[in-house]
Amino acid sequence: MSSRKRSAAKGVKKEAPPNSPPNWPVFKPLLPPEDLSLETVVDSQILVVRNFWTAKLCKEYVSFLSTLPLTTTPGRPKKGEALRVNDRFQIVDPVFANRLWVETGLRELICNLENQDEESRAQLWGGTPISLNPSIRVYRYSRGQYFDCHYDESNNLVLERPNTPTSTRAKTTWTMLLYLTSSTTGCQGGETVFYPDDLPRGRNSVEEKVVVELETGKLLLHKHGNDCMLHEGCEVSEGEKWVIRSDLCVTR
Fold first, then answer.
1. What is the mean pLDDT of residues 34-48?
2. What are the Cα distances from residue 189, in Å, to 104, 144, 150, 175, 220?
């Protein structure tokens, strides 16, 4: 895989997001926050939270997201950009991003890691975590659709946070993917695969590719920007893969 050029996830021309956020369903039922935990897949690179959302909530959201005006991405990226074939919806919605951050227990998981002081947390997350990216993306991958090998870029933002009178300068450091379907819902394929050949700064402690299987309700967090591992979303062979995407924001 090391012979591949560095293709950015910006390989798809962004559609202008709609102005009005949808009426997102409530987050019920959820597991109690104390029943959730961050599991390390690759140290300081890939983490997962199993059962972050319940199967019932995922099913309700798939039904709701199916009503949104999804746009099919073009199949011919520009030179050097990653090929993505899926259907997507994008909205800038700081209220929904804050709900994902606060109401699900994610803030406590990230900000209150056991056996970590403030300096260690900042080193892991790339700064002091404050919220999720208000740019919310919904992806549907149907049979034959996939996302070719790429890197996710870091972005600088100015956040207008709920109940806060002043804006905050921030940057994104980790990608957040919430899987809403899996083999239990009829989706085959669609795994997220990471390749260790060019781990940043020579930290090549992983010798083989890392496959993150789809699990309904599983949250995947992986580092992006300069420290991003090359990765891809494998082709879906049956059913539909539904994903909600955002990013972890830290102060800058």
1. 95
2. 27, 10, 18, 21, 16
Q: Which of 137, 143, 140, 136 is nearest to 86 (CA)?
A: 140
**CA-CA-CA-CA torsion for 249, 120, 33, 136, nearest 10 degrees?**
10
**Exposed/middle/buried for 216, CB within 10 Å: 0-12, 13-18, 19+?**
buried
The per-residue pLDDT for 75 is 61
CA distances in angstroms from 180 to 9, 53, 101, 125, listed in the order given: 21, 8, 17, 25
Q: Which helix (H) or strand (E) holds 125?
A: helix 118-125
Does the CA dihedral 40-111-191-188 come out positive or negative? positive
Yes or no: say if 12 and 77 are a contact pair by the CB < 8 Å rule.
yes
Residues 6+ apart with CB under 8 A from 181: 58, 62, 187, 214, 216, 239, 240, 241, 242
pLDDT tens track for 51-69 = 999 999 999 999 999 999 9
**Residue 63: which H helix or E strand, with range?**
helix 55-65
Phi, psi of 208 (to 5 degrees): -125, 165
Q: CA 82, CA 232: separation in Å to the nearest integer?
A: 10
Residue 137 corresponds to which tokens in the numbers above? 């993306």
| CA dist., res. 91 & res. 97, Å (int) | 10
